[in-house]
Amino acid sequence: MMRAHWGTRLGFILAAAGSAIGLGNIWKFPYITGENGGGLFVLIYLGCVAVVGLPIMIAEILIGRAAQSSPVSAYKRLSGEDSPWQALGWLGVVCAFVILSYYSVVAGWSLNYIILSLVDTTHGKTPDQIGGIFDTLYKSGSANLLWHFVFLSLTVGIVYGGVQRGIEKACRVLMPMLFVMVGALVVYCLIETPSGFAKAFGFILEPDREKLTPRGVLEALGHSFFTLSLGMGAMLTYGSYMSKEDDITRSSLWIVGLDTLISMLACFMIFPFVLGHGQVPAQGPGLVFKTLPIIFSTLPAGLLVSLVFFVLLALAALTSAISLLEVSTSYFIDEHEWERPKAVLVTGVITLVLGVPSALAGGGGMLPEWEAMFGMNFFDTFDYLASNWLLTFGGFATAIYAGWFLPDRLRREEFASGSRFGKLYPVWLWTLRVSPVAILVVLLYKVGLLKV
Ligand code: TRP
Questions:
Q1: Is the distance from CB of 363 to CB of 156 less than 8 angstroms?
Q2: Which site from 18, 283, 405, 417 is most exposed, i.e. has the minimal number of CB atoms within 10 Å?
């Protein structure tokens, strides 16, 4: 069977940017920036993205395009049928299931808030009561299961359509919508709370050395992996649908640039609200689902703002979820020669089931032994495991593989093919070879061998 390819270069960039731009940009980046005091943290994050994120992004796409296949088969093709590197492909597939299973639950909350924005549940309520809406949702097993199912069905529906007629087509429509909505919300903030906007500027752009801890530096590096969808074969899989005439470096610059832009704009549409209405930016994960609805309820046209915001969040999550599902789906297509419909439905059902404990995590009684053993619920365990360990380790191993084990001739040719940046090969290779050192520091710190 001929391998599917992207219809256009723009289609690939939008799909890959869609994978990168997700809850990590709109939900997580603003609150970790808040926790780390803004300014300097943002600067360090930008450094991590440029020096570690970009070279590994290029490496992942390059491996995928060179092999023209999804993670497990890609390592086999490039390094031999029984190469131990195929374990890295396996890690990617496992990661895809794990991340999508809980990602879908969070995305489901935004679907729920879209409905809440339509029926106005905040009218005449106190801030505590509005915050309580989220607590009720979080604890309701049936609501969580329902939204998890709805969100996953949307994802399955798109991936079912295939690379060009499903993923690319959806991203070509959804991504421009997302950009327009982000822009509209930033402009709204600027008009509605100019004072908050000015405060946000100061908060984000003024380096504040006091509040940044070494821990924050490591968090910045870890997040640069998560937000760029690196370390688990998602970019590799998308790269495998790319043609030899396309410019990998240029596309990567676009993807990384768009992802960073949206993260920054997300700060400029959340902090003006938060700072301008006397709230504190370091609110943890509740920032989006509790603090914002409270502020929205006091704004003129607040319900419309709320609607736009949560549609935006759902779209960002959807285009990321698509790429997660594509990793596991393409595994079954490439390795087991399944037809796409069968592969999508089977992976969809597995993810649905795997997400059940996360959907029920807020219910209290679910799996108390688990909570006792790990000190956190199922949902948090998955998130912690994936974004702290699996992705970091995956990125580390990918950089080592691409930097040291990929045959040099193939690597050089692939880097130059279709690219106007061919001359930068030594710069890229050098950065790629050094990047694992930075990641190793993070890993050592995490296992407690390094104290900062
Ligand atoms: N990048 C996504 C975000 O910012 C999350 C993510 C991490 C992801 N790894 C991924 C998405 C792999 C798709 C594929 O929210």
A1: no
A2: 405
Is 28 in contact with 223 (CB distance < 8 Å)?
yes
Only one residue has tokens 């979820």, namely: 321
d(CA 144, ligand 1 centre) in Å = 21
CA of 226 to the centre of ligand 1 (A): 6
The reply to whether 452 falls in a domain is no
Q: What distance in angstroms lies between residue 363's CA and the mean position of ligand 1's atoms?
A: 26
Residues with Cβ < 8 Å from 123, sequence gap 6 or more? Answer: 297
For residue 294, report the distance from its CA to the centre of ligand 1, in Å: 28
CA 232 to ligand 1 centroid distance, Å: 9
- What CA dihedral angle connects 171, 174, 180 and 182, to 10 degrees? -90
Of all atoms in ligand 1, which is nearest to the CA of residue 391?
Answer: 9
- Return d(Cα 253, Cα 54) in angstroms, integer: 7
What predicted TM-score, i.e. pTM, was given to this entire model?
Answer: 0.92
* Ligand 1 pocket residue status of 69, Cβ below 6 Å: no
C-alpha closest to that of 62 among 410, 333, 426, 433: 410
2 found inside a domain: no
Q: Is 390 in the pocket of ligand 1 (CB under 6 A)?
A: no
Answer yes or no: are the C-beta atoms of 26 and 262 closer than 8 Å: yes
Locus of tokens 């209290």: 364
Is residue 324 in contact with ligand 1, taking CB distance under 6 Å? yes
The yes-or-no verdict on residue 76 having pLDDT over 80 is yes
Q: Residues 120, 124, 130, 135: is their CA dihedral positive or negative?
A: negative
Q: How confident is the model at residue 365 (pLDDT cuts 50, 70, 90)?
A: very low
The tally of domains found in the chain comes to: 1
Is 3 among the domain residues?
Answer: no
- In CATH, what number is assigned to the domain containing residue 398? 1.10.4160.10
pLDDT digits (tens, 9 = 90+) for 97-140: 999 998 999 899 999 999 999 987 777 788 888 888 888 888 88
d(Cα 217, Cα 10) in Å, to the nearest integer?
Answer: 33
Paired tokens of 295: 């502020």
Position in ligand 1 atom list of the atom nearest CA 230 = 9
